[in-house]
Design a protein that fits this description.
Layout (H helix, E strand, L loop, with lengths): L13 H12 L6 H8 L8 H18 L10 H15 L24 E3 L6 E3 L9 H15 L5 E3 H6 L4 H4 L4 H14 L4 E4 L6 E4 L7 H17 L1
Antiparallel strand pairs: 1-2, 3-5, 4-5
Helix pairs in contact: 3-4, 5-8, 5-9
Length: about 230
Amino acid sequence: MLFGENRDPYLEHPGSLWLLHWMLAGKPGRATVWHWAFNEFHEPTFDRELMRRRLHRRCDELSESGRLGKERTISDITIRRDVECLVRTYFALPGGARRAPEDSIECPLAELGLIQKAGVGELYRFRRGPKSSLPDEVFLFALLDFWRTYYAARKSFSVDFLTFERGSPGQVFLLDEEAVAERLVRLDALTDGAVRWDESSGMRQLYGHKLESIDEWGLLRAMYDRDLRRGAA
């Protein structure tokens, strides 16, 4: 859609970066380390070495359980490279930093600000909270992807579940509970009532009524058409 249909070939729309991040981190089969980092690695602050140790331990657990394949192990150098690549994907080096020419091109996803410095040295943290550049259409796309993939028979979710459950939009986009709730309120209008927000009973819940009627790809295309026309004007 972005490149083949020429919707946003230069990644100028902020929604494109969020969409690519969801495709990377939303499911374990696409980029396993990315999914693990945003859904299982919950350290308040970390450096590359701590992330490497935690990831190595997780790989050992999967290997012992046979989920990596028969007698398969992951080398330490592979884990180190994946950790380095992940951090560099989301954290841009300071503009005045001295670096080799091949390291001077930053990943566009660093603009999302999902990984930040935490004090001096090489400490980092994941930045959880509101994300003003995340369009509601991309949040809805992620919500439906999560819903249909893992909980197709389920009719409702709590705010807490959609914030902290593994693979949920709140977890992958690092949104806090109130930021998720604010977005859920707006989905009724965006989907013509196919998903509805209800807090009348004191429990904040999202209900699905006609999920099959939602054309999430059509909503994304409409978002690009609307915003690119606005930008051209």
